Amino acid sequence: MMQTLSALVKQGDIRGIGLSIGLSEVSSETLRQAHAIHPITAVQSEYSLWSRQPEEELLETCRELGVSFVAYSPLGRAFLTGKLDTESLEAGDFRHAVPRLNGEALTNNQQIVKQFSKLATEWQYSNAQLCLAWLLNKHPHVIPIAGTRHEKYLIENAQATKITLKPSK
Description:
Elements: H1 2-10, E1 18-20, H2 21-24, H3 28-37, E2 42-46, H4 58-65, E3 68-72, H5 103-122, H6 127-138, E4 142-145, H7 151-158
Parallel strand pairs: 1-2, 2-3, 3-4
């Protein structure tokens, strides 16, 4: 498949090649193999203060290869915003199946978010802004994609690009 995609780039039919963790379970090894055939533009995986598995190896591989990392769910599936009411989720909402949002784990995580909310308030940011700023400040090649249905949150989230976190934070 990489040879076909590479040919499409060379023909000008597509601009670049990205790999989605959600579809292909891209590991550092797979990324290196694909990149050896044709330069990869970006990979995508869940990454947030709550889900940090990419730090184990993949982010460093992306940095080495000059590959952008698209972080989905940078707000922890909305839980880290402090605004998610798990009791009000519709019956078919996928978050009912997320172990971190159920039972004792939910209770523990609610306490963590409560402390995080206090910190965000103390620093005069929203939880979402602090989550996004953390990603943007931590790795320059990480591109967080936060979903929202409301314009005010879109504007608020965009302000995270102006936040500089000091290493002590």
